[in-house]
Amino acid sequence: MLFGVAVCALVAAFTLTMVVIADDGPERFGPGASGAKPSPTARATTSRDVGLPACLVGSWRTVDEVLMVKFYTDQPIMPFVGAGRTYEFRPDGTATERVDNAVFTASFRGNQLRLVANGSLEYTWTATNSALTYVARTGGSFTWQYFDQRGLISTQQIPPTETMNSVYDYNCQPTRMAESNSTGYRSAWARTAGFGVYG
């Protein structure tokens, strides 16, 4: 009766090109030569690829999150509210999500619905100054449990590896971050001291 939850949940490759002016040693000039060397070789242009946004690097914890979930097959998608997922974004473009009994709730016909998340997942990611892309899941183990007034009604295991290319709008500040997308999903994050320090 249930569909899966549609959730989501920097070493930048720097290229530095340098040219060192060659010096093959003193020239052997004939009589009357000044001993001057040839004009110097022009230095090649130094270039560097644009890196991932530094503000995202570090550890975060969700403090307010709305997930859009198809809980029942015969009912519309419903918003579930919760918090408590943690993220670690590294400068090499990898990230880890960890969850320990994070609870998301909704109300349906006077009854409380609950989603309980547990586990961890590894991701690859990239970003511009305003868009965060989860490129792929690369490992881990993650479970969603579905509860209604009858108790546990279903368990969903998230595939540990999958190409995603899921894009989210974000706004990052030194100690907080907001993430959202067009489905109605939104999340507010607070920076923690678990990994790295912005700035």
Salient structural properties:
disordered N terminus, 10 strands, ten-stranded antiparallel β-sheet, mainly beta, Lipocalin, 199 residues
Topology, element by element:
Elements: E1 58-69, E2 78-82, E3 86-89, E4 94-108, E5 111-127, E6 131-148, E7 151-158, E8 161-172, E9 176-180, E10 186-192
Antiparallel strand pairs: 1-2, 1-3, 1-10, 2-4, 3-4, 4-5, 5-6, 6-7, 6-8, 8-9, 9-10
Structure, explained:
This protein has no helices and 10 strands. The protein has a domain of 139 residues: Lipocalin, CATH 2.40.128. The N terminus is likely disordered. It is globular, with a radius of gyration of 26 Å. The chain has 199 residues and is an all-beta fold. Helix content is 0%, strand content 52%. A hairpin with an 8-residue loop joins strand 1 and strand 2.
Topology-level CATH name of the domain at 54-192: Lipocalin
Beta fraction of the residues? Answer: over 45%
Query: In CATH, what is the class of the domain at 54-192?
Result: Mainly Beta
Number of strands: 10
Strand-and-helix sequence, N→C?
Answer: EEEEEEEEEE
Please summarize the sheet with the most strands: 10 strands, antiparallel
Q: If classified by CATH, what would the architecture of the domain at 54-192 be?
A: Beta Barrel
Range of helix content: under 10%
Round the Cα radius of gyration to an integer and report it.
26 Å
Indicate the mean pLDDT: 82
Distance between the termini: 48 Å
Compose a concise summary of this entry.
The protein has 199 residues and is mainly β.
